[in-house]
Amino acid sequence: MTVLTDGMELYNSRLAELNDTHGRFTEMDAHLVYGKDVIGASTDYMAELDYYGKKRIHNLKYFTWVEQQGKTYDEIQAQWYEDSYWRDIRQSVEPLDSLITEFNRMSGATLG
Fold first, then answer.
1. Side-chain half-sphere exposure of 103, counting CA atoms within 13 A
2. Residue 36 lies in a domain
3. CA separation, residue 90 to residues 6, 31, 84, 85, 99 (Å)
4. Parent domain of 25
5. What is the CA radius of gyration of the chain?
6. At 58, which helix (H) or strand (E)?
7. Which member of 38, 76, 85, 100 has the lowest number of beta carbons within 10 Å of its beta carbon?
8. Structural domain count of the chain
């Protein structure tokens, strides 16, 4: 895993570059990478984070959240200091999933 601080749309040029270099990334490729690099990862490639390591990763989002997406610094602080922030986010998953499903149905988008 890695920390991706930008929205996926900002990685499209990198994906195009990788497709040009290595060919299209297929579903089979995804299975192979998952097995090798996620399931097969050893602790050599992992870090157990202490408070400062977690805080360092948390602080990576300042530029993309505040300067690019218009979120507030107070919201970033709430994510770190207020347990209720994450409980509230979890409670909104089902309603958001329903809205996404409805949007996909209306737009003709298919999943999978």
1. 6
2. yes
3. 21, 28, 10, 9, 15
4. 1-46
5. 18
6. helix 51-59
7. 38
8. 1
